[in-house]
Design goal:
With 357 residues, this protein is an alpha+beta fold. It is 32% helix and 15% strand. The strands form 4 sheets. A 4-stranded mixed beta sheet has the order 4-3-5-12. Strands 6-11-7-10 form a 4-stranded mixed beta sheet. It is globular and about 65 Å long. The two termini are 30 Å apart.
Amino acid sequence: MQQTTGANLAARSYELDDFAAAQEFYHAQGWTDGLPVVPPTEAAVRACLDWAMMPPDQLIGIEPVREQPVTAEKLAINAVMAGCLPMHFPAVVTAFGAMLQPEFLLHGATASTGGCAVLVVLNGPIRLEIGAGASFNALGNSDRATAVIGRALRLALINLMDVRPGGIDRSTLGHPGKFSYCLAEDEEDTTWQPLSVVRGVPEGISAVTVMAAMAPRQIMNEWTTDPREILETFAAEMRANLRHYSIHGGNYAIVIPKQLRDHIQAAGWSKRDIAEFVHERARIRRAEWADVGKGAVVRDRGDSVYAALDSPDHLLVIAAGGPAGGFGAVIPPWLGHKTKAVTAAIGACIDCEPPKG
């Protein structure tokens, strides 16, 4: 493999007696998420950098608000700590770079009292290369790859952006996705286009999509095969979020496992058809806030209508989940359109300018 990391690593090194001592040291420094970490030896960090063909000082991006730079070496250290193998590192790099895009609003999403996490969706060949599971327990501990990739992003936020509870992170509650929140799309068992293709990445290219997301809200409908009735259940959960949490529209994700997906596909519905239906159905009147204890903010605007999605394009439709059970999930956004989901290709440049000269 091509070596790109001959330069010295810049991070400070520590000599510790054993694995247990390393755990206590890292916990004492506040460098973990509360779980044990893999000691980031120089060899392990270099292996990640070599796999991604990145020098240690390569700039991944700069956090727009505090102008904090993120280098490949620093990100690799946190990836190793999270349990990543070198083959996982390109997804970590691409996801973190996507999070640094201005439209994602990383500082707002990580500093808010709202307590969202970073949802990561994997598409393309990399899913199979790293063994990312898209079936059973897709939103839980389904496999090593999704667990460590999501965790690497959280550890990097803690250690590179100081996103610690009570510090930058002002979450009132948070949710378990703040340990890891990553899933792969089931591209092999669906007729639908992958999420990344819907969002502009050419077919066959590995990609990640990141979204500032609240916890998943599981739904169930086992009593119909009609796509409209199935999707009405998803839309109802989105309407509930508009009533109970935030009235502002933005990116929502819906995860559709095989049993419900088969019914929708058999009727010839595409992801675009789903998005257009849900866009029309997932909306409420402001007066409905009075039904859930928020009457004080209705005032004279009770007839105002609020849509969960500003447009059908804002819905992320994800094919994932186990083969049986009429279940699905709605994943709401952190705060409406203030943050936008970002999709980026892994190891490929889309719409890049050709070299000059």
